Amino acid sequence: MYRFAIACSFFFATASFAQDKLESMLAAEIIGPKQTLSELQAYVDARIPRMPALTTGDRWLEDAEALRQRVLDEVVFRGEARKWRHNKVDVAWLESIPAGEGYTLKKLRYEALPGLWIPALLYEPAKKSDKIAVSLAVNGHDPNGKAAGYKQTRCINMAKRGMYVLNLEWLGMGQLRGPGYRHCAMNQLDLCGTSGLAPFYLAMARGLDVLLALPNADKERVAVSGLSGGGWQTIIISALDTRVTLSNPVAGYSSFRTRLKYFKDLGDSEQTPTDLARFVDYTHLTAMLAPRPLLLTYNSKDNCCFESGYALPPLLDAARPAFARLNALKKLDSHVNDDPGTHNFDKDNRQALYKMLGTHFFAGDATYKNDEIECAKEVKKIDELTVPLPEPNADFNTLAKSLMASLPRSGDLPQEKAAAMQWQSERRKELRAAVKFAELPIQAVIAGKGEDGGTSVIRWRMKIGDAWSVPVVEISRGKSQGTTILLRDAGRNSPAMITKLVQAGQRVLAVDPFYFGECKFPSHQVLFALMLATVGERPLGLQAAQIAAITGWAKKEFGGETPSVVVDGPRLSVAALVACASAPGAFEKLRLINSFGSLKQLIEQNRTVDQMPELFCFGLLDVCDIRQLVAMAAPTPVQFVEPDSDDPFKGLSDWYALFGVKCAPLAGAK
Distance between CA atoms of 647 and 627, rounded to whole angstroms? Predict the structure, then answer.
């Protein structure tokens, strides 16, 4: 009885320790809350391309054209977008509505890509000349979209000056608001291997098609202007489409390097698209306008983003040499608004545009005036400008659903061992390329130790590769029978799970990989993840590489036995599967709790990149789904505990049998 009482006392003391003290020991700081952020800033900054030293104007024109084609071919038009690129624009001209003196107003819609129609308004000058200058008016993050008063005023003024003006709606704004048009939903297309940037680009390019097909449209005088997100659109289409001959982005962008320092400049998915910064920074895009007229407009007290004091100088510094080499410095201009100086395209900024148009489009016209023409009474209400659209109209989500229907393209699993191994080898190469998986060296330093009641806690600071620090907490009691690496979407602090594993004789390594737990950014979470992807890396591949590196270290550190991995949460479940599939033999076994059954669920549930940034890895679903990841992981046993769906795992018993493994990745119970 006495021995039994001692045993009970020991057990309850252990449980008490786990619940009362383990949580605080797990939470103890190892790398600090800003370490991952500072490492990402340094990592990304080193990979953002710099402007080359310019020798001659002709050489820059050649270099700019080469960059233009690489961005179009390798960033904008990937996957199905290659086909969209060559579609002819389909235009539906609709009713004309009452307008003011000197112009008419027509409603229209045009098809940017199959099934996606853009509502627009054409402001047409009443008095026409033999050659009519044209302008594409884009807008930013304004819920009123094309009906925004300041935008209507700009369009009316240009039409009264004798220009065709196309006022188009932006995805996610005005008539195109809705959950399927959210900008953070564009990454659903990325997941399928088709550029989510393409619909944004094609909406503008098709708008230029509409303008330049108008009677007497002057191909030598083609302007684009816009505020904020419209400023971003302006520099993108102007740099990449040389049909644009005058550009006025307003408070719309800054260099990627600037954004790493001024967090309010970090842009949405479209502003930081996958792989753009492999080829160009926004400094390059700015210089690529040379020798075409460019007016950079910024606001001195901008309360949104892109403040003139820090955003404008790097762009001018990059552009001036290009314009100078081409004897076009007079075509590069800038304007800073001080009154009100906030985020605006109000009268002062509009008049800077009118002046630029007068200088380059209407030189010698003595009747041209730079001052704004009063037209407040001609600005219309939003319902007056509504353009009928077909039902349904495509959006990011419906396009992604269509794309995913034939994915992944890896085909059926072979039923013979030799063919199965060949399939694994080929798919594994594709997977590693898609996620940018790399085998990274690892160094481990003890950051602290603790022990109480026989339970040992060691805090490790892991340096993985040349760039990344990862915190790891080792928990053990007595002689361990094996090592289990624990990963949780909610972070490493899980006393209950750890206590169970330790009581089962396991040494536990609780890990916070990139973007989780202590490695989470203090703010602007997803926007920094997008920065990593734009320089050509993938958050998912980095997480998988860190997990694989830690399993390799643990095997060496603890006697040569391969560790097991337990994951709680859908996001890190995918990362662990990618690690297991990319690094065969790295895991003894893999147990996944609350995993997705399929990556297609992200699209079916209309999930967005801000919720699960690493899972929208470009082209991942094109290469494999969860089922194929499990097949690549064989012969490592994979068990799913309460997955969203067990359908993808049915039939894999026979696949595992090919590798001499009797267990199969069947759904279990907690």
Answer: 9
Question: Reduced to 3 DSSP states, what percent helix, strand and coil does the chain have, rounded to the nearest 5?
Answer: 45, 20, 40
DSSP state of 123: E
Task: Give me the CATH topology for the region 2-45+425-668.
Answer: Rossmann fold (3.40.50)
Query: What's the CATH number for 77-252+285-362+376-403?
Result: 3.40.50.1820
Amino acid symbol at 350: R
Residues of the chain where predicted confidence (pLDDT) is lower than 70: 1-20, 644-648, 663-670
Dihedral of the CA atoms 253, 255, 261, 262 (nearest 10)?
Answer: -10
> Which stretches of 192-340 are DSSP H helices?
198-212, 229-240, 256-259, 276-279, 282-287, 308-325
Report in angstroms the alpha-carbon separations of 214 from 211, 247, 517.
6, 20, 56
pLDDT recorded at residue 12: 36
Return the closest-CA partner of residue 459 out of 506, 511, 422, 523. 511
Residue keyed to tokens 């998912």: 540
Dump pLDDT digits (tens) for 69-103. 999 999 999 999 999 999 999 999 999 999 999 99
Partners of 336 in beta bridges: 298
Residue range 355-380, pLDDT digits in tens: 999 999 999 999 999 999 999 999 99
Indicate the domain borders of the chain.
2-45+425-668, 77-252+285-362+376-403
CA distance 17 to 7: 15
432-443 residue pLDDT tens:
999 999 999 999
CB atoms within 10 A of CB 411: 9
| Cβ–Cβ < 8 Å for 525, 445 | no
Domains 2-45+425-668 and 77-252+285-362+376-403 share a fold: yes
* Selection from 658, 669, 670, 666 nearest residue 639 by Cα: 666
Rg value, the chain, Cα = 29
- SS in 3 state form for 172-197? CCHHHCCHHHCHHHCHHHHHCCCCCC
**CA–CA distance, 471 with 486 (Å, rounded to integer):** 12
Q: Which amino acid, one-letter code, is at 151?
A: K
C-beta of residue 553 within 8 angstroms of C-beta of residue 511: no
Question: In 10 A of CB 644, how many CB atoms?
Answer: 17
pLDDT at 664: 58
Q: Which pTM does this prediction carry?
A: 0.95
Nearest in space to 545 (alpha carbons), one of 600, 622, 617, 478: 617
How far is Cα 596 from Cα 565, in angstroms, rounded to an integer? 17
Residue 373 is given by DSSP the state P
Q: What percent of the chain clears pLDDT 90, i.e. is strictly above it?
A: 89
| Region of 427 on the Ramachandran plot (φ > 0 left; ψ -120 to 50 alpha; else beta) | alpha
